[in-house]
Each structure stands twice: as C-alpha cells, then as structure tokens.
Amino acid sequence: MSRPGRGREEDGWRRIDAEARAAFAAGLPFPLPAYSEFMPAPHLAPKPYERLGATPVAEGASFDVSEYEQADELEPGLARVAAHLLDELAKLARGQPHEMSRTLLTDNPAWPAELAEAARAGKLAHAPLAVLFPLALSRTQDDKGNVPWTLFGASHDGPSRSFWRSFGASDGARLARVVAWAARDAAASLEGLRVLVDDDVPAEALPDFARALASPDDASLAGVRTLLTFRPFAELPPAVRAAFLAGTLRLLPHPASLIFFEHAGYRLLGASLPRARQIPLLHLYPRVEGGYTIRIPQSGWLDEIDAATAKPNHGHKVVRQVVRTHRWQRAQRDAGLAGDGAYTDDVSTALFSADADDLGLYGKPMARNAQVWREDYRLILDGPRADALDIENAAGAVDRGGRFGYRLIYPPLRAGAREIFWHLPLVARLAPGTAEVLADDPPRGYVLAEAPGAAPIELKPNLLARAGHREAARLRDRAGRARHASGGNARKLLELADALGTLPASLARAALHVARDQTCASWLAGLENPTLAAHLRALVGPDVDPGAALTFDATATRAFEEQVWRSIASLAEGPLRNKENADVVAANHGRHGGPAARLAGVEAAHRCDLGRLGDELHARYRALIDKHGMQGRARVADHRFRWETDFDFSWSDGWAKNQSRAAHERNVVLVIPGRDRGEAVVMGDHYDTAYMEDVYEEDRGGDGLRAAAAGADDNHSATTALLLAADVLLPMARDGRLERDVWLVHLTGEEFPSDCLGARALCRALVERRLRFHDEDGAVIDASAARVVGAFILDMIGHNNPRDRDVFQIAPGEGAAALRLAARAHAANARWNRDVPRWNAARPDLPRALRREHGRDLPPPFAHLPLAGEVRPEWDPRSALYNTDGQIFSDVGVPVVLFMENYDISRTGYHDTHDTMKNIDLDYAAALTAIAIETVAQTACARAP
Q1: How many whole angstroms from its chain centre is CA 257?
Q2: Where are the domains of the chain?
Q3: Pick from 93, 117, 115, 92: which is nearest to 102 by CA?
Q4: 547-600 pLDDT, tens digit each
Q5: Which end of the chain has the smaller Cβ count within 10 Å, N or C?
Q6: CA 686, CA 135: separation in Å to the nearest integer?
C-alpha cells in the first residue's frame, strides 16, 4: 500500500539530510526569538550549525526511538492516555455524564441519535470497548530544556491510515491476533472478520491479505463476527447498524472512538489551520502538562464576554486560566509542570499582554505558542507562523469580545526543513476495572517527515533495544523510583562510551550521581542486574595520566586568587550598578522595593550602566593587549545587533531605544589569534545582571520594583574568569602556542526580559555565516568563515554550595562533540586535583577561604581546593544547561559545555539583594576559574578539537 506521492523510501534520510543542508546554507535567515516568547522546535542532526560532514548521513528510512523514551515516556504515558480515553468513552457508551463537550457530539455522524439513544437505554453493554486510535506524536521543547514526547492530538492523517500501514502484505495472522486481543475473544480469526473500507483507505490501498477481507456495503453478514471499519456509525449500511445494536456483530474500533475525527467545525478550521483535526482529542486533557509522562499542552475555550450578556452552557470545554512556567522557577527540571499560583493568569492575558505587571519578573506573552479561533471556527491566530501584526490583530479580536477556542502548541521535532510526526495507532481495551494497551507486537504506524507543499517522507519507527541501554532504561531503584538514579548513571556511562570509547575510571566516576565516597567499581559491584554490570564494567578502563598542564603555573598562585577577588569586587561593588538591558523601567515609578531594598540601599535605576560596563571591559582588554605586546594582533571589538521582539515592551526604556534606533545591544569580544584563523574556541559569560526577586515579589516583601542585582556570583564571577583568561592566553598567542583562535565573548542580555539576547544574536550570526565584529577603530572584522569548534559558557562559578561542597557542573550540550569537550574539561579538573597536594605543601595547615562581607576585605591565604567536576549531560535532571545561554548554543548545534557551580535552585544569593561578595568563596572561585581557563587553552592548542 502506498499513499499517492509517498512511499517508505530507502533513501529517506539522505533526502532529508540534503534538504537540511540546503535549508541551513550560508546566508539564509535563521530567526532565533526569545524562548520565553516562542519556544522553538528541537532539531535532529544535522543541526543548523553542524559542520558539513561532521555527522554521518543516516541511512535508510528508520526513525529510532530510544530505550529511555520507550520506558520512561511512551509506555507509561500511552497507558494513561488510553485509560482516560477509554474511561470517558465508557461513560458515553453507558449514557453517563462524561467530559466530551456538547458541541463535539452535536450532529456528529460517529454518534448519531440512534447510537446515543441506545447508550442511554443501556443497549451497548455487549460491545467490547476497544480502540484502534491513531495519535499524532512528536517531541517538543519546554522551558526547562527537556524534549519530551508530546501528544498533538488525533492523527491528522485520518482515523485508519496509520493502522493499515502497520501491516505488511502477508500479515494476516498478526491482524488476527490484534483483533482477538482487542475483542477479548481468543477464538477470533480472519474467518469471522470482514473489513469495511473508508474514504481514507479504499480497498485498493489495503495490504494484500486485508484486501481479500474487504466487503461491499451490501454483502451478507452471515458468519461475520467482527467488522473492522473506521467509518462513522451514521454512514454504515443499515444492516450493519442494526446488527451492532442487536448485539450480533462486533465493531472494531468501538464506534464512539471515531467522534474525534468527525467534528464539522474542526474540518472547517482545517482549511486555514493544517492539522486542525488533531484538536478535539486534546480537549479531553486540558490540564495535564506534566502529569502523563507524555506532554499534553493545554487547550480549551475561553469567554471574553460581558457576564451580563453571556449565554450560559454554550457546550464548549471552557478552560479559562493557564499556569505560566519559566526556566528560573524554583522547581526541579524533571518535576511536573504544575506551576504555582503566582503565575496563573487568564488565558487571554497570558497570550497577549505585555504589560509589566502582568508579566512579572519572568513572564512573556505566549501567543507565538498558541493557535486561536472563533466560535464559528474561523482562524484568528496561528502563533508559530505569526508576525507582530498578526499577533496585534488577534489580540484586538479577543479584546473586542466573543468566544474563542485555543490550544497551546509547541513546534514538533524538526529534521532540517521538515517536521516529524509519529502517527501511532493506540490499540487499547477496557477490561474490568482497568485499561490495557496492547504490548505484544502492536501496530507501530509510521513517522512522517512533513513540509508544506512537499510530499511527506515516510520513515519506519524503530524501537531500539541496544545491549546495555535496554537494561539501563528498565533499571529501577529499590524504592521503586524510575531510572533517575541507577538507570541514569548507567545511561551516562553508555553514552560517554559511545562517544569516546573506553572511559578512564575517573571520568566514569565523574558521571555518576552516587555518594561522595563511593567508587565507580563499588557502584558497579552493587548493581542488581549482573548483565548490565558486566556490560558497563567492560566500558571502563584504568585511569590515565591527564598530562601536563598548560596554564596552572599562572593560575595556581596567590596573586591569581587576589586578582579573582578584586575583579569580582570591582564589578559588583563599583559605581556601575544598573546592569540590566531593560533599564530604565517606567513601571518602577512610585515603587521602593520594601525592606530588602532599604537594607541594601537599592533604588530604582535612573540610567542603564550596561553600556558603561561594556566600555570598562574594552579598557581592561586594551590594557592587557598592551601588557603582552599583542597590539595589532589581538583585537577587542563589539558584536552589534538590536533587541527585537514580537511584542511591545515600551515600559522598558532599553527596549524602546532599540526600536527607535537610538541605541543598540552588543556582545563584547576579545579575539585572540591562533595559527589557524579558520577555527575558534569560544569562552563566554553574560555580563548583565538580573532583577532582584526580594525587592519585586510581594511574598518576599517587595513592591514590584525592578532593580538589578549587584551580581557578584551571577555573573561577575564568570566575567572575571574571562578577564583573567585573557591575561593567560594572550602571551600564549604571542608565542605561537595556540592552534586556533580564542574568542572571549561577554554576552549581553541573558537575564529577563531580554532572555539570552546576546547568545541568540551570536548563534544566529553563526548559523547564517554573517558574523561580523566592529573593533575600536571602526574596522569590521568578518568572522563569517571561522568555524566555532567548541564553546565553554561560564555562569555562576563563585559560590560553594554548603549542602554539597566542592562540586561543580561540567554540563555538556547535545551530541558526541560536546561530550568530547566535557572529557577535556574533566581532564583539566583531574590535572588540578593531581597537583593540589604538591601546591599545598607550600601552604601547610591553611584552612578553607573565609567569606568576607565586602570586597575591600581580602580573604587571608588558604589551601588550594580540589574540586569534583560532575559530568551532567543535557538530559540529566541536575544539569543547569537549560538555565543559561549554553542551551542556545546546544540547540543550534554548536558543541558546548557549561561550567557552573553546584546550582541550588532553593538558595538565596542570586537574583536578589544577597548576590554580593558575602556569598563568594574565593578558594572555590579561583580553582574553578583556573580549571576553566586550562580547558579552553587545551582545546585551543589541541591538534584536533
């Protein structure tokens, strides 16, 4: 069977790959809006910035589904989806109250009056409640950096195609098993089965064996026990309807399950909104963003009507409020996205309002991730394809009043220019007291790589069952929790070995989340699955000498430690206090910040100091260039761009000046030349600071004041690391020791409301191959041809978590290249720890560094501190990559590693008045700074990056 213009071609991935490379060709636009305004699609390889040829072209036409996706998302998620669907269909079939809206059932040919009357009379009890329900699934990205499988709704390819496409020409026995299971009839066979075709899959399109079972409408029902048909009940032949109602004929799937495909309104909406047929099913699941392991974004109806004139009981599923989430929410990233009351807004407000008080500190309008239509099913907004004018018009339509349907929609997984959907038939039945999903060789449907105006490319789902990964995905801790502990540890070892080969024991240990004193060998010995333990043991080799250090002679010194302290203090306590891109804020008028602001001497900003801070960074780099005799070779420059949004943030003077072109934004860049000017290593921070929660949030005593933090840890600790790196790397460049360029990049606008502004501008320019810097003499440095082989992003590296001390994150982005960078960071950490005892021999009996209240008080000498750098891949719940600029680099395909302290989401001391020198641990900050500089130097000097 094949659909016109579509086939399961053996070269499917080669076609997708060729299209992808054309779509990401140099010079083509690649917009990167703020993720808080528009959460984009995740990308499969090749990602937009992947080096040509770096990723082997995938062969064949298989779409891999990992063991972890199966065990942790799809299997439990589909079971819960099926349970709720079957439960509601059972209520409908028994004539009981249910969650289906009246508008769904009115004039629905799948639920005509004769069927509804039979249900109310209790005459459908004989019919097995089984579904062969085609779902549209894909993966989407959320604001915690997760990429979960997501239910988009019913398959927009129709009710039957994915089911029949799951069977080969000779799969008759397999179909018989499916029918017998669904009907709970072990005696069911093809002899008693007939097929009644529908418009989507006519007889000639059935598999060969099924074509012989196809029955004309007027055929006799003698000897037929089961009729397999996806036609709506009202369109079945009268004899079939009568036999079903009489209990002498089974229908599979249950006719009630087809109601979601037969809603006339969504068929009408489909003319302007492709895939609108997905939507009716979603209304059964209006508030389960994080409760099903499969993501189900919110949908429903909202009323923007004067209560005095409103017509009650209009028959729609009304869901009036939405829970906002954001990446700085103090919740674990793998927790359910239930939100908290502080971020619950009316849907229309959440979608369209850019008012400062509606947004709070971390909100952005959600309209770009929404679709909205009128009560008569006329589209007014398709958010993912909308521009600013579309959004403005939609906001005006909603503001004028009426009833509106909506769904929050996050773009599906992309493979180059195509969107990926898995059209999966959910085969499930309602057994006494429970719902069951067919697990034994169920139909798998197909995966379509879809693009507007092009025939889809069909791929075959391939459920991976790799040795080691298979066991790791099913590993459960004794407490019954899923793999987030032991299974997650096993997965990390497996993925590192896939990328790197045999793992040094110390690197394997750095990937494990276990007790501090436990070794890798003892953890392996304690695994209850001996097969998995043996497999993992074979991946771990002996420790190897990490080799000679390149930079520790310059950084493992008291002078360096003093530089770290004085630099952070000068940035945090100097005259430049208002370091937020949005300043000055009109909404601050009349607000004072409450007790915390009075205690810290905080006032509303009357100017923005971020530009002056950029000038200060220029001056420091000029001095270092002169110090090391690198005039005319190293260059300090700006990467210039404008802050552009789809929404009006005119309450922000910083935003408004960008719109009027009275100002622009800039990343500050020091270009340190290597021998190969065609490759570069990025070492980045963000140099803006965040608005403070304790002077804004009412529950912390604030009164809505937006005032920027001093930023000692977040993020002047990292800004200092870059400044000190220049002092180390410039003489290496002068002496010809760098194999490739190093770009020290101070990124602007990481914090809200600008939201990774500088990282997005830089990554967009990299993808488009249009990267240009402007140096201090006005000359343009065209960096378009240089290839970034790796990026190391530093964010918050100065605070030693007292609940789990001396730990920091080595958090790689997605892909094998990022894992290789993480291994290099681990090797730098190993060199540091190896040499600490020798250095401390010259510092006998010194304690840890003492904290100081103010920067003027330098901590006395202390012992060098060994650190434990934990390797946390991007999917690890403890990775904070998502919370930083590093996520942007990873998403576009730049190999990236985040250096960050052992981030504690519940602590005070960042995004508040306490982000000062009193929370800086100098021994920790100096050690982590030195390790980061060593990692960058090793990457810049390596023959192969």
Answers
A1: 32
A2: 62-263+417-463, 298-409, 469-541, 610-642+658-688+708-854+864-941
A3: 92
A4: 999 999 999 999 999 999 999 999 999 999 999 999 999 999 999 999 999 999
A5: N
A6: 42
